[in-house]
Amino acid sequence: MIVIYDELYTEHLKGIDHPESPDRVAGVASYLEKSGLFGGREPARDATDAELAFVHPAAYLERVRRDVAALGARPGYLSTGDTVLDHSSLAVARRAAGGAIVAMERAVETNDAVFALVRPPGHHAEPARGMGFCIFGNAALAAHAFVQQNGGRALIVDFDYHHGNGTQAMARDGVSFVSTHAYPAYPGTGGPSEQSIADDWAVVNVPLPPHSYGTEAFVATWQRALPEVARRVRPDLIVVSAGYDYASGDPVGDLGADGPQSAAALAALIREIGAEYANGRVVYCLEGGYDVATLARSVAATLRSHDAAPASERADPGSIPAPQRSILERVEATCP
Fold this sequence. Notes:
Elements: E1 2-4, H1 23-34, E2 41-42, H2 49-52, H3 58-69, E3 76-77, E4 84-85, H4 89-110, E5 113-116, H5 138-150, E6 154-158, H6 165-169, E7 175-182, E8 196-197, E9 202-208, H7 215-233, E10 237-242, H8 259-277, E11 282-286, H9 292-308, H10 322-333
Parallel strand pairs: 1-2, 1-5, 5-11, 6-7, 6-10, 7-9, 10-11
Antiparallel strand pairs: 3-4, 8-9
Helix pairs in contact: 1-9, 4-5, 7-8, 7-10, 8-9
């Protein structure tokens, strides 16, 4: 699988004690190199102002510029809330957004999967508000860039521990969003009532208990939800908000699911859906995952499983707890 990566990604928050550290991508890159999985590495580029405008108003970009310029040599916060910045943050976030768009372009060119190993992550960034560890909405930008450049529809698949409130806010005009996430964990959105099925896009949320959901239930939930949503949306591109903080032991998340095992099962499922609807075009964008060793092994499992094209083994659907089964049943009823 092609991996989009740039050394600039290690500059954001360098030397600052923060969970979203440069070690996340540097550690994954090193592990992939040692595992022989980094041979398809390709460079990123900066997202242009026009591309950022697919999902972010110009006033928000100007706000980020001002906030970063005002920092000097000391870190601080984005004025929209809780996002930590340093002097490099705008440049790195622009390159991360561009990396996601490059991954989309390569997926379209090759009819294959591409992994954007980017940071900072993006799924909490709302159109005019950075949140969490996120500045620009990388996955949403890739999806909207695809629709703008190619027409058709894109489906964003978000399996991060946290709800992608920003991505959900950008679902429209042919871009759909389906998510599992711990609820009511940060940011407290994505509850069971937050469902929308429109003519050319959909929002589907399957909130999970904050801890101890388990590997089999996690995989089974996706094996039931994703085919139904894809059948309704019929996407021409799959964009995955690949957040691995669902993994057992993650210091920021932890759904009690085995990281690499779940990653491999989800990749096999996503490959099947991508082949059925999107001519094989899949973009993975790194989101969360804060235990570097588990993150690296999980990303490697994604690459191996997607490239190996295994048939996805079916998890026991009976392992899905009753509250999640009820949500899935309601979703299925609205997806004729």
